[in-house]
Amino acid sequence: MLIFNYIPIGWSAYLSFFDAQGTVTPDTFVGLDNYADMLTGPFAQSLLTFSVFALFIVPLTFALALGLAVAVNRIRFARAFFRSVFFLPTACSYVVAAMVWKLSLFSGVRFGLANTVLDWFGQDPVAWLSNPDPPWYWVVLVTARLWLQVGFYMILFIAGLQRIPDSLYEAAYVDGAKPGWQVFRHITFPQLRPTSIAVLLLSLIAAYQAFDEFYNLLGTARGYPDFGRPPLVYLYYLALGQTQDYGHGSAGALILALLIALVTLLQGQVLGFGRRD
Amino acid sequence: MRGYSRRGFLGMAGGVTAAGLLAACGSNTGRSSGSGDTIEQWYHAYGEAGVQQAVERYAKAYDKATVHVQWNPGDYDSKIASALAASNGPDVFESTLRVDMVRSKQIVSLDDLLGDARSDFTESVLASHTVDGQVYGIPQSVDMQMLFYRKSMLQKAGLQPPSTVDELIDAAHKLTTNKVKGLFLGNDGGVGVLAGPLLWSAGLDYLTPDNKVGFDDPLAAESVGRLRTLFTSNSLLLGAPADWSDPSAFVQGLTAMQWTGLWTVPAVQKALGDDFGVLPWPALNGAGKASVPFGAYGSMVNAKSKKIDAAKAYVKWLWIERGDYQQDFDLSYGFHIPARKSLAAKADKLKSGPAADAVRFVQDLGKPQNPPPWTAKMQLALSDSLNKIVRSGADATTELKNAAGSVQTELKRLYG
C-alpha cells in the first residue's frame, strides 16, 4: 500500500506545485499556478461536461438496473438464462464494445446498422460520432456505457432483493397492501436502501472515471475532440502522452480526486450513507 | 519402461517453462554471444510484414556489439516519451524530433556522425531532425500525405483535378451522389490531419522562423473556415469504418477523393489500377502554396544511455554507412521514400506514376508534419481550436487567438 498507493499520491501532490514537464524530479516551484491553469482551461470544461453526464447517467443506470433486477427476479422460467443475458456484457472489454458500437452499430456510412434502420424510414445517414451538432455522439456513448455496466448493477440489486425476507411481503399482504407498485414502493424499495446507495456511489465514481469507451469511440490517431472529452482522457493527453506535463497532470488528478470525494460525501450525506437503518 | 512420478513430472515441466521464459527474455537477434557492449534498440511496430525480421537481421549483422531489438506495438510515441523521462529507456530508438526532448537533455547530438553524407540527405528531412543547428536524429525513411482522386469519377462529372481550395470544395460538391461522397479527409473531417496544410495553403505556418506564433492571422481563420464549409456541405464522408490513413473508403468507392498517405499507393494500385491520381493540398490564395506534409522517423541516441559512444557508432553504421539496409528497409516491405537522395533516385518503385509524383511533391512542396519546435502541447491547443471551429461552428478568429495564447505560453517556457 505504501509503495503503490501512498508514495505515488504524495509524489503527485508534490509535482502539482512544480513545473514538471518531462521530469519527475523538478526544481521550479510554481505554487498554485498549475491548479489555476487547470481550473480555467479545457480541464474545467471537461469537469463540467462530465458533471452533467454524471447527473444524467447515474439515475438512468440506477433505474434500468433496478427495473431489470425486479423483472428478472420475478420471472418464473429460464431465470438463470435471463440473468446471464443481462450480465454477460459486463464481461465484455470496453474496448471491444466500443469497436462494435463504432464500426458496426453506429458507423456513419449508409450500411451501418443504425443508418440502415433510418434508411427504412427514408432518413439520411447520420455521422453519429463525427458531427457534434446535433450531439448524436451522446446516444452512442450512453448506450455503450449502459450496455456495459447495467448488468453489473442489476446483479447487486438482485442480491439485495434476495435478502428481503418473505415474511415482510406476507405481513404487507395481510395488512392489505396490493401487489405491484404499492408493495414495491413501501416494502421493496426501502429495503433496498443500502444497495441503492452503493449503486449510486459506484456509478457516480464510474461516470467521472470514464475513459475506455470514450477514448476508443471518439479518439483518432491524430487526437481527440474537445466535445465529449472525459477528464481522464484530457489528463492522459496532458501527462502520459507526448506532452509529459506531470505538473499540470498531477494538479488535474488531485482536483478530480477531490471532486469525486466531495460529490460522493455529499451524495452519501443526502442519502444517509453509513446511517443506521 | 520407467514411469514419471507426479512430483518429477511437475518439476520437469517447471524447468522447461523456466528455460522457455529465460530464453524469451534474452536477445532476439539470434546471436548466441556478442563482443563488447549490448545495445538496446527500440522500433515501433511497422504494419508491413517482414520489417521486424529485417531490422533484426541488420542488428545481427553488426559485429561491434550485440544489439537487442525491441518491437513495440501500441502507442509507441507515448511509450518512448515515458521511457526517456525515466531512466530505463533504450540506448537507440526511432522517433520524430521535438524541441522539448532537446531542452530536457533526453537525446544527444549526432552532428558528428554525418560527415560527407550530410549533403546526401534531403534538406527538409534533415532539417526536421535539427534543433539550434544540431542534428539529433539520422532520418531513416520518409512518409508523406497527399490527396488521391478517382480519374474516372472526375471525368464523368466533367471536372479537372482541383488546383485551388475553392475548386476542391466545388469538386467535392459535384462528385457527391446518394451513394458516393465527394471527399474523405478522416472521420473528424480532417481536423486532426490537415492543420499544417490549411496554414501552409494561406502562406502561414505553425510558427514563424524566429519561433513566434504563426497562425494568429485573418488568413488562417479564412483557411480554417473553408474546412468548416466542407464539413457542413454534406459532401464529406464522415464515420467511415476505417480512418483516413487506410485506403478502404477510396478503393471501395465510398468517396471520389481521399486524403491519405504514400503508404497506400500499392493497395490503391492493386484495387484501381491506373484509375487514380494524386495531388498536394491546394493553395488558398496567391500568398499561399500547395503543400504535402511529411513525417520522418530518425534514429536517436538516449542521453541517459551508459553506452553513448557504442550507440552512436551503431547508428552511424546502420543508417549512414549501410545504404543498402536503408534501401531495403524503405522499399522491400512497405512503401516509403528513402531519406538519402541518392537512394531515392535509384528506387525503381518511385520512378513512375503517383509514387514519382509523391517524391516530387516532397522535394518541391514538402513541409514537416511535426516540426521540432512544435510540441505536443501546442498541437493539443491548436487541435482543440480546430475542432471547435470546424466541427462545432465556433468563431474562427476567437478560437485561433485562444490557441495562439496557449502556444505563446509554451514558447515562453521553451525559449524565454
TrEMBL record, chain A:
BP terms from Gene Ontology: transmembrane transport
Stretches that traverse the bilayer: 47-68, 80-101, 136-159, 192-211, 246-266
One Pfam family, short name: BPD_transp_1
Statement: the UniProt record of this protein carries the keyword Transferase: no
Annotated InterPro entries: ABC_transporter_permease, MetI-like, MetI-like_sf
Residue intervals of the ABC transmembrane type-1 domain: 49-267
GO CC terms in record: plasma membrane
Identification of the protein by name: Multiple sugar transport system permease protein
Source species of the chain: Kutzneria kofuensis
From TrEMBL, chain B:
Signal peptide: 1-18
Record has Ligase as a keyword: no
Keywords linked to the UniProt accession: Signal, Sugar transport, Transport
Alphabetical list of PROSITE patterns matching this protein: PROKAR_LIPOPROTEIN, TAT
CC annotations in GO: ATP-binding cassette (ABC) transporter complex, substrate-binding subunit-containing
CDD domains reported in the protein's UniProt record: PBP2_TMBP_like
GO molecular function per UniProt: maltose binding
GO-annotated biological processes: maltodextrin transmembrane transport; maltose transport
Any Pfam family the entry gives: SBP_bac_1
Similarity field: Belongs to the bacterial solute-binding protein 1 family.
Protein name: Multiple sugar transport system substrate-binding protein
Originating organism: Kutzneria kofuensis
